Model the fold of this input.
Amino acid sequence: MIERAYIVDDDEISIFVTSVLLETEGFARQIESFLCAEEALQKLLHGAEENWPQLIFLDLNMPILNGWTFLDALTVQQARFRGKCHIFILTSSVDPLEKERAAQYALVKGFLRKPLDQSELTWIRDQI
Amino acid sequence: MNSVLTPEFYSSIIQHSHDMITIITPDGVYKYVSNSVMKQMGYSEHELIGQVALNHIHTDDLPHVLAVLEAINHTRQIKAKPFRYLHKNGTWRWLSCVITNMLDNPTIDGFVTNSRDVTEEEEAIRLLEKKEAYYRALFFNHPDLVFTLNEQGMIQESNLRASELFGYHPTETMGKHFAYFVAPTHLDEALKAFRKVIASGAYTFETKIHSKEQHLLDLSVTLVPVWLNNRITAVHCIAKDITQAKLSEKLLHDQADQLNNMLSSITESFFALNRQWQLTYANAQVTKYDLAVKNQMYKNFWQENPELVNSVFYQKCMEVMATGKPAENEEYIPTINAVTHYRIYPFDDGIAVCFTDITAKKAAQDELNKLSLVASKTTNGVIITDNKGLIEWANNSFMNLMGYSLQELLEQDPINLLQGPDTNQEVIENVRRMFQLAVPFSEEVLTYKKNGDKLWIAADVTPILEENGKVEKYIIIYTDISDRKFAETQLLQMNENLVKQNRDLQQFTYMVSHNLRAPVANIVGLTRMLPQLEPGSVPYTKAIANLDKSVQRLDAVICDLSDILSIRTQDSTELLEPVEMYTLCNEVLQSLQETTTALQATIDVQVEKGIVLKAKRAYLYSIVHNLVSNAIKYRSEDRALHLQLHIGKNQQGIWMHVADNGLGMDMEVVRPQIFKLYNRFHVHKEGRGIGLYLVKSQVEAMGGTVDVESEKNKGTTFRINFKPQRA
Done:
């Protein structure tokens, strides 16, 4: 079972939907939600390695610090996070260009479209 | 022998002697006269005895004779200088006389004179003296230099003039050979001349000598041999100083040479005819032509060139010779197969003719005339400028095209004259650069007619170069390309708009799809979740509430869509109405009063009354409302909201400032995004990210601009500007 997962999304309802599913499925022991991507980033960059989440559900379209900027910031230090911290894009976007763009990031393990469902969770488990 | 020396013997000798013997008393009276006096002087004894001897003496000689008579009283014998004595026949005879004082001899008691007629000798001497005087006068006072050389050429004597001119004292030249003084360049000739004189008589030649001061003097020398006793004893040398004459001659010669050189060096052909139509001068240029002038000096020009008699040139020459007034003309002269430009000048002795071959020039002129004809008839504008690019000529089409008269165009710089405020300065600079490079080029330029109308022209510039490669003129051909260019500009503008619209549309599509998709995704997630949740449980209730929220959000997005589409689809020119800004602002603030009161916000409204903007009222309302709402929404929790709403008018049009002391934004981060649809910059705040997008769309739809300045935790200021509107 996954120890810790982050949900980074500016949409409260979306966080609610995702976290309820994760809890129902018993996907992770601990789920942390961030409405502000900046907060999540700070916690990752400055937090102890044992507190890192194995998994991050990242929204793209957010105010101030959007998903792309978040990814860029982590990519700078990706050697530290590689293999330990897997990122899955979880967006309402229907734009295939965004999926392509996300695939460029080594830390990104998958591109998922909201809402998340059970079968996708199974697939995620297989990925990590 | 004593017997011989009797008194008779003495008397006989005396009687027959040629010497005339007399005895005169100390008073000078004849006491005795010998017979020879009769023979010599024609007087008988009786005629003279008792007479005073001095009566027959020439008055000029009296003083001397008297002096002798006085002197003889004290001495024995005196030989008197010859004196003249009157002959009976009335002529004067020179007598040489020895007078002896014999007063002590009682038989004689007087002075014995013994005289001899020396007239012949005396006259010979007189003549010689005279000749000598003449000679000396001739020799010494001669205005020319005179030398006497001996037969070897040694100088024996030289005159005053020679010393003057030579600078040598006669003693310095004496005994020196004449060669010593002759200039080395002329020595051979002088020696040869001397030998010639010795051999064959007098000879005249010119030579040069050195003076004592080493000046070179030109002399004309005549050598005359002096013959004496069948041999040459001396050579007279008479030399005339011709230095000045030589100098003048040289000057004259040089001047003539110079004149000749000048006339020869004139690139124009030049010849002169005298009043008899004889050729008196032709410079080198003339000889290049097939005219009969070579070796034709002093021959009649018309006879030598008979075919010219039929020419206008012939008539003109006749006229000039007759009237004395100069003439000029251009004419094709078949003899030399050239079009010439000739000028004929009269002078005292005839006429002078200058002519140049203008065949090439004429051909060029003809060519230019043809070009000019083409240029003046073409519908294109054509101008010709000088080498500085200033207009010298413009055709009618150009004047019609630009609306200037020729007077207004002359000496103007066409680049300066035709450009206007919207002319691209980079193009102008490029044009100037190309002018400098003197290469042909074409450029399309926006120009202005005299009346200010814009005109797009294509200018084809061709520099005309001189032989040395320098620019002589520029020919500029203008073609009116306004129709094409304006269409092109319009097309470019349209294209630019399309690109912008397309880009906007992409962004719009993306954002709309995303914002439509977001609530839909939530609804799908929630509805999928609901069956698995226990009704009445907390998550169930929350899911239901979120479902409601998501549906409302979906509705809001759809409403936004309708708003946005309404701005995009309306024509920007219609539905404009005068909006009084003061009233409008108050209406907006009124609608938000409840909130602002509750927040204890202070609002500083400075709107000049009477500012009226012709605009869409709904847009203006939406703009002001959005900005004020934003100020309220993004206020700082740390301080009471202070809002400034200022509207004014200046030369740039109507301006509106909306400033708050709210949260503010980091402009570095938000600047590229701020006016884009569904972009948001505040977390934990309600907002869909459409307000500023609408503000910008609406402002731009009315031709305005919007800008923003913000500082985090200080506040934000929006500045909107609408261009001045025509009344």
